[in-house]
TrEMBL record:
UniProt xrefs under PROSITE patterns: PROKAR_LIPOPROTEIN
SUPFAM superfamilies: NTF2-like
InterPro entries in UniProt: NTF2-like_dom_sf, SnoaL-like
UniProt protein name: SnoaL-like domain-containing protein
Origin superkingdom: Bacteria
SnoaL-like domain mapped to chain residues: 171-268
Amino acid sequence: MKKILLSATIILAIGFTSCKSQKANSITKKEGKMEISNKEKVITLLKSIETGAQEPVSYINPNKYTQHNLGVSDGLEGFGALLQQLPPNSAKVNTVRAFEDGDFVFTQTDYQFFGPKIGFDIFRFEDGKIVEHWDNLQEKPEHPNPSGNTMIDGTIEIKDINKTEENKTLVKNFVEDILVNGKMEKLAGYFDGDNYIQHNPNIANGLSGLGKALEYMASKGITMKYNKVHRVLGEGNFVLTVSEGSFADKNTSFYDLFRVENGKIAEHWDVMETIAPKGEWKNDNGKF
């Protein structure tokens, strides 16, 4: 039951405390009336779980809502069933970053919901309505990583919108070359020397920090493998990849957010989640 409740977190995760620079473009004027963007719809809908506002649920298509959180039943019925188990006034949520790429909105969230969690959401829209949802959750660590960085601090500003596709290609190539295919001879080419800010809770900054972490995992017999990149989304200098693989011999979903600067990877955030056995799934839509 606890697992099911925790899996609702992503649906509840995004607050109005999203960065001001992202909200600046969230409202557009159409036919004399103000219409909020898809990004703002996601923020408003999920914040309503904390505030109790009723109107934002209208942003979901009631006849078509596909759920990929494996601990939540499909459709609005599954969404509602989980919310009924939430103690009143217990959710505290904060949108740290929110992005929009075509019909997709993706977010990074820091929240308190049956314990502290960090998570990513992806929502797909059709005709202005939410029709599909994916997420990834990880327990929030008590302490920063060896370089003093948390899982959610760091650069927020979205820029270089005209380089979105270029940056998506760069990051996709990095994940496939290095993490999927292990072409380590190409690693240095994706970075500006050792200038690399790392937000993974167990890894220090720079390629040197990554190398030490990999050595430590190897000494403990811990393996990490990316098998397939399922999705690449981006807005300006930020790119999110959704990948499938294994960590410590367990099927794992990897969500990695990268910031690109001057054609090099400059900063990284991530969330890893073990994929539940199929017998425990609450829907048949799959994690990806």
